[in-house]
Design a protein that fits this description.
This protein has 396 residues and is mostly helical. The chain has helices spanning 5-8, 16-26, 30-37, 41-48, 56-66, 85-88, 94-98, 102-121, 141-152, 156-161, 167-177, 214-228, 244-261, 264-270, 283-293, 297-306, 312-340, 346-367, 373-380, 387-394, and strands at 181-185, 194-197, 203-207, 232-234. β2 and β3 form a beta hairpin.
């Protein structure tokens, strides 16, 4: 839509309820928003009470730069109906959800948008394979993990032969193969290592701020949530305020993921379980064991806790140290990229964030005539100049 200078500075009458909803949905206070928009809090309050109206320029800034909403949304009479976040993440308390940062809320909103896009692309597709795998809270999580390994066709011998540099990608490939979408998006590390959304099209979103091998445990924890058809946020911390039902699911998913990645029988042989007692494990020990199974040191230490060979206190102490080291490494890497003026190539960025399954669906929909060539750009959020490299990358 084109506006000349005069039109752009004319106040536009916007429903006060829309303005309040847009601000509340991202978790900003009146003061936060007013500061970002360079107006007084009193002025914003007048807009939200219908006593004054923003100009088109101000409305554009609110929509695109602050609230991250399409500008067309602001011309509605009433706010759109959106599923409350607490309905998606029943393993979190209302208090925890209320304290999500605006960055985290935007990531969740983006994930829901991706879910809706998948629904658009998959109206006539068959039921995904993962629906055939049944799990319940009455199951033994260790035995369930063994069944799941057989279900996805991944022998432990194959996993052990992988290179640690490509283990995460190989695990993700097996999960996408059974119809579970895996996305990777940057989000505040202290708020989530990953999360899952269920409904008609379950998806997993992993945190790019986490180390690649650290995402492996998060992946299978969230896979377990999807098998239960209960979405959740994985924070990897002690949670005491869950109700009994969701605590049981959370504990089940942790044990399921650990047992899948590091099968009990083999692991007990590798550590000579019969002669071991609870102890503090050295970094050398943990690295050596992590290389055997191509998982993180955290996953190994978590397994040792499950076997009563390490304390939870030792686990969380080591975890804090490793998280601090990871954060320092990330900062150094960001500074290197900044100094070199380089960045991640668009084809790598798109494939990493969207995943091969989603991208393949987009391309299939185009070939079937369900979407236009231009819409490919909208779904993948990239200029079509990069499409040949993207196609080449997902076919590797």
């Amino acid at each position: 839509m084109y506006f000349n200078f005069n039109m752009a500075t004319i106040p536009f009458k916007i429903s006060p309820s829309i303005l309040k909803w847009a601000r509340n949905s991202i978790g900003y206070s009146i003061e936060d928003t007013a500061h970002k928009l360079s107006i007084t809090p009193q002025r914003l309050e007048e807009w939200e009470k219908g006593l004054a109206s923003p100009t088109y320029n101000q409305l554009e800034n609110l929509a695109y730069k602050i609230y991250k909403r399409p500008i067309a949304t602001f011309f509605r009479k009433e706010p759109p109906t959106e599923k409350p976040i607490e309905k998606d993440f029943r393993n979190l308390s209302s208090s925890e959800i209320m304290h999500f940062s605006s960055e985290m809320i935007l990531v969740i909103r983006k994930a829901k948008h991706l879910q809706n896009q998948i629904k658009e692309l998959n109206l006539n597709l068959e039921e995904p394979d993962f629906r055939k795998f049944k799990v319940s809270i009455a199951d033994n999580p260790i035995l369930a993990s063994e069944r799941f390994r057989e279900f996805i066709g991944l022998p432990i011998e194959v996993q052990k032969k992988w290179n640690s540099s490509n283990a995460y990608d190989n695990f993700k490939k097996h999960i996408e193969k059974i119809g579970i979408y895996v996305f990777q998006i940057q989000m505040p590390f202290e708020e989530a290592r990953g999360f899952s959304l269920t409904d008609d099209v379950p998806i997993i979103v992993l945190n790019t701020e986490d180390a690649k091998n650290g995402r492996i445990f998060s992946l299978f924890h969230e896979v377990c949530h999807i098998l239960f058809n209960v979405g959740g946020v994985f924070r990897d911390r002690e949670t005491n305020n869950l109700n009994a039902e969701y605590k049981a699911i959370e504990d089940f998913c942790n044990l399921f993921a650990a047992s899948f990645l590091i099968p009990d029988k083999l692991f007990k042989i590798d550590i000579d379980y019969s002669h071991k007692k609870i102890q503090e494990w050295s970094e050398v020990d943990l690295i050596a064991l992590s290389k055997i199974y191509n998982v993180s040191k955290e996953a190994i230490l978590r397994k040792l806790v499950d076997l009563n060979l390490a304390s939870k206190n030792f686990y969380f102490t080591k975890k804090r140290i490793w998280n601090a080291e990871l954060a320092a490494h990330k900062e150094i890497q960001k500074q290197k990229n900044k100094d070199s003026g380089g960045g991640v190539p668009q084809d790598i960025k798109v494939v990493s964030e969207k995943g091969k399954l989603f991208i393949s669906n987009v391309l299939d929909s185009y070939e079937k005539g369900n979407i236009t060539y231009g819409q490919i750009s909208e779904f993948l959020e990239v200029k079509l100049d990069h499409l040949p490299q993207i196609i080449q990358r997902i076919n590797r």
